[in-house]
Amino acid sequence: xxxxxxxxxxxxxxxxxxxxxxxxxxxxxxxxxxxxxxxxxxxxxxxxxxxxxxxxxxxxxxxxxxxxxxxxxxxxxxxxxxxxxxxxxxxxxxxxxxxxxxxxxxxxxxxxxxxxxxxxxxxxxxxxxxxxxxxxxxxxxxxxxxxxxxxxxxxxxxxxxxxxxxxxxxxxxxxxxxxxxxxxxxxxxxxxxxxxxxxxxxxxxxxxxxxxxxxxxxxxxxxxxxxxxxxxxxxxxxxxxxxxxxxxxxxxxxxxxxxxxxxxxxxxxxxxxxxxxxxxxxxxxxxxxxxxxxxxxxxxxxxxxxxxxxxxxxxxxxxxxxxxxxxxxxxxxxxxxxxxxxxxxxxxxxxxxxxxxxxxxxxxxxxxxxxxx
Length: 373
Prior knowledge:
Blueprint: E1 2-3, E2 12-17, E3 20-24, E4 38-42, E5 48-53, E6 65-67, E7 75-76, E8 82-83, E9 86-90, E10 97-101, H1 108-117, E11 124-131, E12 137-144, E13 152-158, H2 166-178, H3 183-191, E14 192-197, H4 202-207, H5 230-243, E15 247-254, E16 267-268, H6 274-290, H7 321-326, E17 333-338, E18 343-344, E19 347-348, H8 351-371
Parallel strand pairs: 3-5, 13-14, 13-15, 15-17
Antiparallel strand pairs: 1-4, 2-3, 4-10, 5-9, 6-7, 6-10, 8-9, 11-12, 12-14, 16-17, 18-19
């Protein structure tokens, strides 16, 4: 009745008594407690069940995400269905299958669907960065001006931590805006070549891993000497050669913890490189001015280096993507951004609202590049 045998699936069932199902997230090779889970229920039509997480409270600010069409569309069940580390759901009488997830999944099938929508677009070229340890292709997208004559270049990365799926919808919004007939899209296609890696931890995305604090090394701590993973090794080798001295910014997209302070607003992660951080703040102030979508961003919500978890101790395992990028020759700004899973200052995070935030980011990219001269 309950399983996770599909891309991105993750659950361990511990037992069932009456209408209460006991489950827990599968940590696999994550070295600390974490929160990702995604499962489906079949054969429960017309029943009301309670799902209790036994290891820790891994339900987000708006309850679980729910899909009744095989994972095609999702909505938030709502905090009203949640009691502590459990949630209650009344299955429709005609529900053959219902899926539940920490948030709204984004796996290979979603990326493929997006790329099919833009198939044949001369401003988009799908390439391969490398193959993973399990043999999967890691997509490398070239987007924008692709004739080698772009005045600017930019690198976009996502899913260093494979569970951070809502960031992928923001990335999709960025790509859609670059490819659109809007003023922002037209300017960016004339002036910028984007290099995009949608899934840094491709195996983790498809297998349904946590990804965060992975043993023997977190993907976002693998940018120093002796990189362990094919993706980070290939990216470190490619980017300096591809940049040709025109790399203007790197934007690495993440999601934070699932609820609470610093996890329900959008923020940039501060750099210890103060020259870089001041440039990031310039981008951030412009984003606050230009945003028009439903997810608000406030500069005063950023997390400067040295505060809370953003200290030198947090990077003891190795170098992050943003730290590595800040040292690339000629770069103007290396940015790492956290986009919440469910709630941004009271506004719901959904696939569509995250895409619209990506649109706000893209408009800011254009205006920021123009402002730099």
